[in-house]
Amino acid sequence: MPELPEMENYRQLLSGRIIGRTITGVEIGREKSINLTPEQFEREVVGQAVRFIERRAKHLLFHLSSTRVLVLHLMLGGMMFYGRKEEKPDRTVQVRLSFGDHHLFFIGLRLGYLHLHEADELPTVMAKLGPEPFDPQLNEDRFAELLRRKNSTLKNTLVDQSVLAGIGNCYSDEICFHASLRPVNRTTALSEQQLSQLYQSMRTVLNEATRFGGYMEMPLFVGDTLTGGFDSRCRVYDREGEPCERCGHPIVFQEVSSKKSYCCLHCQH
To answer: Does residue 159 carry a pLDDT above 90?
Structure first.
């Protein structure tokens, strides 16, 4: 599932391509991916320009000139592609937004969605989300308070969107590895020093992952060499059996709080 770095990468790359451009057409391949009838959706969206794109947690918010907002959540297996029809990957498209001869294809939205909301509905839509990892008000003390309040495993706490917004399976494991802590650790058992290290690791890992385009493999457009650049830099996620880059012991797969998790049992404590 795309997480904060993947969605931030999409936001940055798309902003230079569609901001200020007018949506000239819409095609709906899966009605369950939208929250209106296809006819209503087309009527409300076509003719509107994209004013700016915002990211909130794992969502992208496409602010339109009508003051309405398209809220995207890709969920598991979702991705996007921007380009001409002949450039599109051979994948099923659930929603297509056209910008003249270029199109934004929403692919793999089996569980994901692209919903249209009034701007003043956004606080309610996003009400259950916790603070962003880079929220200026999320200092080390506030971070420690949020984690201790959860009283669960690190894995379960880091992926809980009501605690911290934007972290999922991949980066929870990468953050724990960077902090030399196992995902199975209970948050209430961590020392002040460990919580401080975890806070710094969270910011370091997410910054690096965003800088290298996240781990999504499919390019956003033809010639995109950034998207997916972090995949080869993952230290533990999906690396079962490979040697740990710190100590050489094999990375192991475990289920933690009913979620898949990867770690090094030797150098993560």
So the answer is: yes
